[in-house]
Structure formats: structure tokens, C-alpha cells
Amino acid sequence: MRSLSVAAAIFAVVFSTQLINSILAAPSPTAAEPQRRNPSADFIRTSCKSTMYPMRCYRTLSPYASEIGSDPKKLAMKALNVTLKVTKSASKLMKRMSRIPGVPAALADCVEEVEDAVDELGKSIGEMGGAPAQGPEFCRMIGDVQTWVSAAETDDDTCTDGFEEVPTVSPGVKRNVKKIVEKHVGRIARFTSNALALVNLYASSSSRSRHVKC
Q1: What sign for the dihedral angle of Cα 87, 57, 183, 162?
Q2: Which of 17, 95, 144, 191 is disulfide-compatible with 83, CB 3.0–4.6 A?
Q3: Which helix (H) or strand (E) holds 161?
């Protein structure tokens, strides 16, 4: 039992390291930049106010300010790409955890949920990155993206549900694994929530500029 707990703790440390590295892989602004007015950073800060987690949103996306500019589509795409990267890291670690002896079978269901989220986020990025859509076609495109990202968010939220019904045959293992999963799946759920909010913001701003009502 002790060895299993240690193994779970090791995976938690590895997972945290991978997740942080994936998020912080982008170059950070230079020390002089915060002293100057940066319209792109202001745009990101203002846009992030539409999300559930605005500080996380700004910290994650502000390093890409020069790339994003003041383009709501580029902002939404970057948010989706960062979310996909984080979700893929979570998926890989959870697959490794699922092979630890004594880990609740509910983790396998959670792995499937996160894999589905990876697939749905990938579809969203592919759809938004395609040829510019016009009129009703834009509404169809953005509707598909919103549906997929919403589904990914649901997958994240329901990932740990199965742990509540796991028999307490190995309570220590269950407790450690559940704690790790809840912590990190909760984190990717927050990234997904922010990405969806920015997709919705892009949808509303584009609908106005295109004079279409979706």
C-alpha cells in the first residue's frame, strides 16, 4: 500500500512539472514591456474579463500578445491550442497512472473522458483554422466549434464522477489517485472554460462585423 501511495505521489510531481512546462513554453515578455502601453496586452486583458477565470486567462495568453494583436479569432485559437496542449499532457499522465496496480477502475473511464476532450478540442482547432467562412457557413462553423468545446468541458467536469462509487477496497490508493485526478482535471477544465468563453466572444464580435445573426 505504501509503495502504491509513493508511486501516485511521484506521478503527481511528474504531472505538475509537465503541465507547468507546457503552459510556460512560450517566451515571456521582457522586463521593459510592462512599463509601456501595450495595446495587444490590453486587448487580451479586456477579452479575458469575459471568462470565468480572467487572471489565469491573461497570464496564459499575454506572452503571445505580439502574435495575437487585437484579433479575437487569433485569441480564441491560441486559447484552444494551449488548452489542447495541457489536456494532452493530462491524458498521457493519466494513462500511465491507470497502469498502477490497485488503482480504481474508474480511472479508466476518466482516461476515456480526457481522450474525448483531446479529440473534440482538435476538431475545434481544425474547424476554426480552415478557410474563412461567410454568412450562414460562418454560423455553422462557429456552432460546431462551440458544440465541441462545450463537450470537452463536460468531459472534464464528469471525469471524476466514477470515483464516488468506487468500493473502498484500497482506500489509500483511491484517495491519492482521486486527489491527483481532481486537481489536474479541474485545472484543464478551467482552461477549457476560458477557451469556450473566448470562442463565444469571437463569435459575437464576428457576427456583428459580418452583419449575420447566428
Answers
A1: negative
A2: 191
A3: none
* Helical spans, DSSP H, in 70-170: 72-97, 106-128, 135-158
Q: From 112, 82, 76, select the one nearest 198 (Cα to Cα).
A: 76
Instruction: Using the structure block, give the residue that is written with the C-alpha cell 514591456.
Output: 33
State pTM to two decimals.
Answer: 0.78
- List, in order of start, the domains of the chain with CATH numbers: 2-20+38-210 (1.20.140.40)
Residue identified by cell 499532457 is 89
Give the model confidence (pLDDT) of 5-63 as tens digits.
544 444 554 455 454 455 444 444 444 444 567 889 999 999 999 999 999 999 999 99
Task: Tell me the three cell numbers of residue 71.
Answer: 484579433
* Residue 20: all three cell numbers together: 507547468
Nearest alpha carbon to residue 65 among 42, 31, 37: 42
- Residues ≥6 apart with Cβ < 8 Å to 77: 125, 128, 129
